[in-house]
Design a protein that fits this description.
Helix 1 crosses helix 3 and helix 2 packs across helix 3. The longest helix has 17 residues. The chain has a three-stranded antiparallel β-sheet with strand order 4-3-5. A two-stranded antiparallel ribbon has the order 1-2. Strand 1 and strand 2 form a beta hairpin. The protein is an alpha+beta fold and 124 residues long.
Length: 124
């Protein structure tokens, strides 16, 4: 008995399509996308209408900067699929992927931010 890893997405007329079919089976994004990475629609791309509905949704949602986690929630697809779709949108020049500090990169900046937050909490 096969067990589904995640729900199938309904498609009009044809029944169901597996989420990874949306990416042509690709699982690797061209951008490093953390859950907190912000994505915003490029002003120059506002009039563009991509054929793939998921890219249209990403563009619409990202008119104000959205995190990858928020986009995953709106698309209702697995994180890996959303990363590939966001990467595709960025490759087409539809959205901007904003740089995210992660890992040891910018550890000092993280420490300074945490100190400012702690200071602000103490003032409350």
């Amino acid at each position: 008995m096969a067990v589904e890893a995640f729900p199938l997405q309904p498609v009009e007329e044809t029944g169901f399509v597996r989420p990874y079919a949306l990416t042509g089976g690709r699982t690797k994004a061209n951008y490093h996308l953390e859950l907190e990475t912000l994505v915003s629609t490029r002003t120059a791309a506002l009039l563009a209408v991509p054929e793939q509905i998921e890219l249209q949704v990403i563009m619409e949602e990202c008119r104000t900067p959205q995190s990858v986690a928020e986009i995953v929630s709106k698309l209702r697809v697995p994180l890996g699929v959303a990363r590939v779709l966001i990467s595709d949108a960025a490759d087409e020049g539809l959205v901007t992927v904003h740089r995210t500090v992660s890992g040891d990169e910018g550890a000092e900046a993280h420490l300074m931010l945490m100190e400012r937050v702690l200071s602000g909490l103490r003032r409350l």
